[in-house]
Every structure is written in structure tokens, then in C-alpha cells.
Amino acid sequence: MSETKGLAFWKHKTLEEMTQAEWESLCDGCAKCCMNKIEDADTGEIFATRVACQLLDLKSCRCSDYARRQQFVPDCRRLTPALVRTLVWLPRTCAYRLLAEGRDLPRWHPLISDDPDSVHKAGVSVRGKVIAEREGMDLEDFIVDWLL
């Protein structure tokens, strides 16, 4: 019998070893990564805003067109194991970041709780805390420090 039989896949697989379905299931649906960010041109510092991507469904905290999101939002990043290890703006609660750093998933994560709404019940998601993107808005007016 395999030592890993019965263990959660994220406990015995590296990010690179995961299937596409396993990889996608790591997303807890918090939508923190779907908030617009500003990069200081001089320092490279990243600032998070409470302004959601135009494709984010603010109620479900899911992308309204995930499969084609890069057609509509060209700077939307497709996460990969290598990229996860370099992005400084991934939230501290992000499962991809946690696993890349050798940490485990929190108990509110849907893979642990078996409840897709547990991220919202735990107050970790952006549900009810953010606004929709509007043309002409000045993102600097919406910088927050609670996202990253």
C-alpha cells in the first residue's frame, strides 16, 4: 500500500505534479487576486485596491468568463507553479502561495471544509468589501492594505 494513499493530494504532490483539476481546485474563491493593483513605477511596490476586475462576479467571487478572461483582460495572469513562487502580490491566504511556501491549507479552505462557501463564512473573501470597476476611476483613491 502506498504511503500517500488516503492523504489529500496537496500533502503529497508538488505544485508541478498536480493535475489541472487538482491545480484549479486549490483556488478557494476569495477573489483577492482579482482586485486591480497599482505598481509604483519608481519603486516597483505593488498596491492593492478594492476595485474588482471587470469580469469578477461580486456575489460569487468567481470570474464571469474564466475560460476567455485573457481575451477581455489581457493583463490577467494565468497562474503556474513557477509564477506562484515569484508573485509578491498573491495574498498571504492564497492556497497556491501557502503550498509553494511549504505551508498547509487553512481549515476554512473549501478542500478542507468541503463547503464552497467556507471562504466567505470565514470572512476571507472580498465578498461585500469591494466595488466594480468603472471607466475613468482613479485607482489611487481605492488603495487598501487588507488584501495582500
In short:
This protein has 148 residues and is of the alpha+beta class.
Describe the structure.
The protein has 148 residues and is of the alpha+beta class. The chain has one domain. The protein is built from 7 helices and 5 strands; from the N terminus they run ααββββαααααβ. It has helices at 9-12, 20-25, 69-72, 81-84, 95-100, 110-113, 118-121; strands spanning 35-39, 46-52, 56-57, 62-63, 143-144. A 3-stranded antiparallel beta sheet has the order 1-2-5, with no helix packed on it. It is globular and about 50 Å long. The protein starts with 8 loop residues before the first helix and ends with a strand. The model is unreliable at 1-5 (pLDDT under 50).
Question: What is this structure's SSE topology?
Answer:
Elements: H1 9-12, H2 20-25, E1 35-39, E2 46-52, E3 56-57, E4 62-63, H3 69-72, H4 81-84, H5 95-100, H6 110-113, H7 118-121, E5 143-144
Antiparallel strand pairs: 1-2, 2-5, 3-4
Provide keyphrases for this structure:
single chain; 148 residues; alpha+beta; three-stranded antiparallel beta sheet; 22% helix; 12% strand; globular
- Count every beta strand, where a strand is a DSSP E run of 2 or more residues: 5
Quaternary: single chain
Distance between the termini: 41 Å
The level of helicity is 10-25%
Q: What does the radius of gyration come to?
A: 16 Å
Counted up, domains total 1
Alpha-beta content class: alpha+beta
Mean pLDDT comes to 92
The arrangement of helices and strands along the chain is: HHEEEEHHHHHE
Task: Give a quick account of the main beta sheet: strands, pairing sense, barrel closure.
Answer: 3 strands, antiparallel
**How many H/I helices?**
7
Uncertain segments: 1-5
Portion in strands: 5-15%
Q: How are strands sequenced across the largest beta sheet?
A: 1-2-5
Shape category: globular
